[in-house]
Amino acid sequence: MQPCPACAGRGCEGCRMEGLVELTAADLPDQGTYQALLAAEMAAHGCWPVAGGWLDQTEICVQAVLAARRSGASN
Ligand SMILES: [Zn+2]
């Protein structure tokens, strides 16, 4: 369960006042949107889609780096 994106967990008609929603595959961004979001996050860390940049890394490596950054393990 995730906080309802419509009400940020406060409770609304969309989440039946529970503040939480179950995400399904249909809620996930399409590949183009995902790549745009990834590009924005990576650019915020000064990492660009160039030779040696994130496009040369495996998806699991990119996700591991992002998870570490989000957890505050590195800057
Ligand atoms: Zn809601």
Describe the 3D structure.
With 75 residues, the chain is mainly alpha-helical. It is built from 2 helices and 2 strands. It has one domain. The chain has helices at 31-44, 59-70, and strands at residues 2-3, 20-21. The chain has a two-stranded antiparallel ribbon with strand order 1-2. The chain starts with a strand and ends in a 5-residue tail after the last helix. The mean pLDDT is 83. The structure holds zinc ion. Zinc ion binds next to loops.
What is the succession of H and E elements? EEHH
Low-confidence stretches: none
The description of the largest β-sheet is:
2 strands, antiparallel
Quick check: average pLDDT? 83
> How many separate structural domains?
1
Q: What is the β-strand count?
A: 2
Spatial order of strands in the largest sheet: 1-2
Report the end-to-end length measured between terminal Cα atoms.
28 Å
Number of helices: 2
Overall shape: it is elongated
Which key features would you list for this structure?
binds zinc ion; mainly alpha; 2 strands
What is the fold's blueprint, element by element?
Layout: E1 2-3, E2 20-21, H1 31-44, H2 59-70
Antiparallel strand pairs: 1-2
The structure holds zinc ion (ZN).
Zinc ion is lined by residues 4, 6-7, 11-12, 14-15, 19.
Question: What would a concise description of this structure say?
Answer:
With 75 residues, the protein is mainly alpha-helical.
